[in-house]
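Researcher: Good morning. I'm working through a list of sequences from a screen, and I'd like to move beyond sequence-only analysis. For each chain I'm collecting a predicted structure so we can compare shapes side by side. This is the next one on the list. No need for commentary yet; just the structure.
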Amino acid sequence: MKISNKSSLIISGVIILVFGFGVGWFSKPAYKTGVQLANGSVVDTDASKRGADMEYFWKAWDLLKEKHVNAASTTAQVMVYGAIKGIASSFGDDYTQFFPPVESKAFNDDISGSIEGVGMELGIKDSLITVIAPIKDSPADKAGVKTGDKIIKINGKEADKMAVEDAVKLIRGAKGTEVTITFVREGTIGTIEKKIMRDVINIPTIKTDLKKGTGGSADVFVIQLYSFNAQSPTLFRGALREFLNSGTNKLVIDLRGNPGGYLEAATDMASFFLPSGKTIVSEDYGAKKSADEYKSKGYDIFDKSKYDIVVLIDGGSASASEILAGALSEQGVAKLVGTKSFGKGSVQELVNLASDTSLKITIAKWLTPKGHNISKEGITPDYIVPITQDDITKKKDPQLDKALEIIRKTK
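Model: Good morning. Structure tokens for this chain:
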């Protein structure tokens, strides 16, 4: 199964391109010099040609089988799975992972989609499962889950070394059932435990608002974008039409708490503001091959000399949000206000090693038009404006206030 390159879904901040082919594996007693893939090609398994001395591997294998207290209860195949996990972890990339049979099935079920759960996007930050953003009006949102909350337990099970896919499997469930999640939150002493009732998750897409100036006339048009789904470009086009008919030339695009979605949606939206051929984002494969560039389709209906644009971002703005914000900022279209974005932008393949095992491999990273690594650096706004707990309690929005202040000063 493969998700089309041109409409690839950024899931939890990474693009997952799914390929399927079978591959035989090795066991010590019958070590092979080559294995044949399902497409007929042969992979040479001679370790010496890869610059590796497998003697130490097999010494460790024999010693563990001979001396470990649980050796009798561990099979050779489980040891192979452990070795592959170790190879995957050696790259220091939280999103390159090996899935043995049970986990592989769960991951494939996950990417096929589920509409029942608690409603929060998860990623890895500081090697811990982290809430990118709770979905607006979801059970998680209503329970007070915040962007940046780190999950340490799910139903009492330790989550500090858990993969995102494993966490999703435990958190999702049928409507009307409950899950207990323990969080730690920056600035809060101790842990926070929340019992959240699962429900059907309806992901909102867009909302518009027209702010009025002191004289009561149209002042600033605000587009709140909650996700980058398949319908987002069409809805965004409709919102831009509202803006053009609103009587104002000042636009705020609010991407706060937007964890991303389809890459194609982000490039389509950026194309409304950029001339044809302008770079929106690059896919960098390192030394393996030259980068792919995603460029503007050239809708370009907003003359920079006539329209003033500000984009709001925060720690819950990820992947497609960062692509759009980075492109509009670095191409000189918009100023950014808020706090640093989440920092999610790597491209991955899911490869079937056998019929029941798979390997998820990071193959590329997203770069902004000026070459900034989104996953490593995130997007830093021009105006950094935090929101405090006191602001939340008093229902204040200093970030939006700052955006309105900046854009109203623009002549």
